[in-house]
């Protein structure tokens, strides 16, 4: 078995001169070259809604997270002076479309969907969760169940592998690139790809032996194990990637600058200790500033390696 590290990603990271072919939709402007949509200078194009809509990335059942985010959203209401409602989305595509259409103002987009949300929905990410020492991120793992007969990625050949959705970094983009570059395994040619829709579906599918193997974000796996949704002895990991940036949080580009500043203030002044967020995201302790240009560079390069298009429908 090859080392638990992607040769593809290693080469991507070392190729400092490489740049992903990333462009914004024509409806957005990026004069400062930070790769995200500029805030409109025409005041008539700015939004200042009385009720703000927030959505968390649909990595698991949205109902699980309505309560998890309730205390944070109450804090945001105090800081912004606005009502804030939790909007449960069922897919990455629905989340992106909601922001593009102006129905979603604040969101947490998963790692893989960030580039498409930025390009097509005017999403402006500015923060992510981190530990006290500032460390953040998760790894992609390929998992199976004990007794499946799958002990290495090479053993997937001729079998089925569950992905989550095509917009997911850990659920599709990274494992596709890694399996091709490191193990010469290509979907449809060497194994049958399946799409579960969400990480929890893939994890439960493996635990219940519905899928022989799946590619998932281990951050979701760890939370499900901590909640007792699955047991550690139901899962066996056969591959672990390098660390990737985790879910980012940001706003729609056309909110007023004053409102965007208040929303950022709400994230950076939230008290984690004893909160529902801390209980759910046990390894995290704060929100830290990030930029799409820097922290998502490796993700854009993985997209480029996979031939991903950012065209907006």
From TrEMBL:
Keywords: Signal. Residues 1-20 form the signal peptide. GO terms for cellular component: ATP-binding cassette (ABC) transporter complex. The keyword Secreted does not apply. GO terms for biological process: transmembrane transport. InterPro entries: PhnD. Gene3D superfamilies: Periplasmic binding protein-like II. The keyword Signal applies. NCBIfam families: 3A0109s03R. This is Phosphonate transport system substrate-binding protein. It comes from Marinomonas pollencensis.
């Amino acid at each position: 078995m090859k080392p638990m590290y992607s040769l593809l990603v290693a080469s991507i990271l070392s190729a400092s001169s490489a740049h992903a072919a990333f462009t914004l939709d024509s409806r957005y402007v990026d004069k400062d070259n930070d790769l995200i949509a500029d805030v409109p200078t025409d005041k008539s194009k700015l939004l200042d809604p009385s009720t703000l809509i927030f959505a968390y990335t649909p990595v698991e059942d949205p109902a699980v997270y309505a309560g998890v985010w309730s205390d944070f959203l109450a804090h945001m209401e105090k800081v912004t002076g606005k009502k804030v409602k939790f909007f449960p989305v069922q897919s990455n595509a629905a989340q992106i479309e909601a922001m593009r259409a102006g129905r979603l103002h604040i969101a947490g987009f998963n790692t893989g969907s960030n580039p498409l949300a930025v390009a097509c929905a005017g999403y402006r990410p500015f923060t992510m969760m981190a530990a006290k020492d500032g460390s953040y991120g998760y790894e992609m793992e390929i998992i199976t169940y004990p007794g499946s007969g799958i002990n290495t990625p090479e053993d997937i050949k001729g079998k089925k592998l569950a992905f989550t959705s095509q917009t997911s970094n850990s659920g599709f983009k990274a494992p596709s690139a890694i399996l091709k570059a490191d193990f010469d395994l290509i979907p449809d040619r060497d194994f049958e790809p399946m799409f579960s829709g969400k990480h929890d579906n893939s994890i439960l599918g493996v635990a219940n032996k519905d899928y022989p193997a799946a590619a998932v974000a281990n951050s979701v796996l760890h939370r499900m194990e901590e909640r007792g949704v699955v047991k550690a002895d139901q899962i066996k990991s056969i591959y672990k990637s390098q660390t990737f940036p985790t879910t980012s949080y940001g706003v729609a580009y056309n909110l007023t600058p004053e409102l965007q500043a208040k929303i950022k203030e709400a994230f950076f002044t939230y008290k984690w200790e004893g909160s529902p967020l801390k209980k759910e995201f046990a390894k995290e302790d704060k929100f830290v500033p990030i930029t799409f240009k820097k922290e998502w560079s490796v993700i854009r390069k993985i997209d480029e390696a996979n031939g991903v298009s950012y065209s907006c429908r």
